[in-house]
Amino acid sequence: MTDDLSFTLEEGKESMTKAINHLEAELVKIRAGKANPAMLDGIVVDYYGNPTQINQVGNISAMDARTISIQPWEKNMLQPIERAIIAANIGINPQNDGNIIRLFLPPLTEERRREMVKRSNGEGEQAKVAVRSIRREAIEQIKKLQKDGLSEDQAKDAETEIQEMTDRFISLVEKHLAAKEKEIMSV
């Protein structure tokens, strides 16, 4: 196997792994009935004119199964954090007592649970599309290598390997989605 071919296969595997890692990060943000500080990942607070991740302006923790607390390191950051959470539209209203912000998660209704499952399935579909486009790009690269002198047998073997890799990563996406759906739908 040529260096270019092994590089193409390795690059494809790396990219597919990144797609799975992205899916895992997105699924963590989807609420599954219990409080998880990772739900606030991606929320940006205006910290003295600089957009800053919410977890860098205060301590975020899950007090119990239904409550997340945010203790800012500076008291004057309470309002900006509160505004950022409201603007993020995550379906939770912050409660500010002057020292700490609490987020009380309401129990999920059946309808809301189904909505969450749809959202996680959408994330899964994006991951599948990403994996398939990585496969397509790798196969195009193999075809270019074949034009440059790679034997037909090596090209076919490499395409088969890429397809098997794609199938493994697609089934991994399915496993993640099934686990998330089970987590969301369990009361």
What does this molecule look like?
The protein is of the alpha+beta class and 187 residues long. The chain has helices at 3-29, 78-88, 110-147, 152-185; strands at 44-47, 50-53, 58-64, 67-72, 94-96, 101-104. A hairpin with a 2-residue loop joins strand 3 (58-64) and strand 4. The longest helix is centred in the last third of the chain and has 38 residues, at 110-147. The termini are far apart.
Give the helices and strands, then pairings.
Elements: H1 3-29, E1 44-47, E2 50-53, E3 58-64, E4 67-72, H2 78-88, E5 94-96, E6 101-104, H3 110-147, H4 152-185
Antiparallel strand pairs: 1-2, 3-4, 4-6, 5-6
Helix pairs in contact: 1-3, 1-4, 3-4
Task: Characterize this entry briefly.
With 187 residues, this protein is α+β, with helices and mostly antiparallel strands.
Radius of gyration: 22 Å
Strand segment count: 6
Strands ordered across the widest β-sheet: 3-4-6-5
Overall mean pLDDT: 86
> Percent of residues in helical segments?
55-70%
Would you identify the CATH H-level superfamily of the largest domain? Ribosome-recycling factor
- How many domains comprise the coordinates? 2
- Listing every helix as H and every strand as E from the N terminus to the C terminus, the arrangement reads HEEEEHEEHH
Estimated structural class: alpha+beta
Biggest β-sheet: count, sense, barrel? 4 strands, antiparallel
Number of helices: 4
Query: Unreliable segments (pLDDT under 50, ≥5 consecutive)?
Result: none
Supply the CATH architecture of the largest domain: Orthogonal Bundle
Tell me the name of the CATH class of the largest domain.
Mainly Alpha
Large-scale geometry: elongated
Note the beta-strand portion.
5-15%
Q: What is CATH's topology name of the largest domain?
A: Topoisomerase I, Chain A, domain 4
Distance between the termini: 52 Å
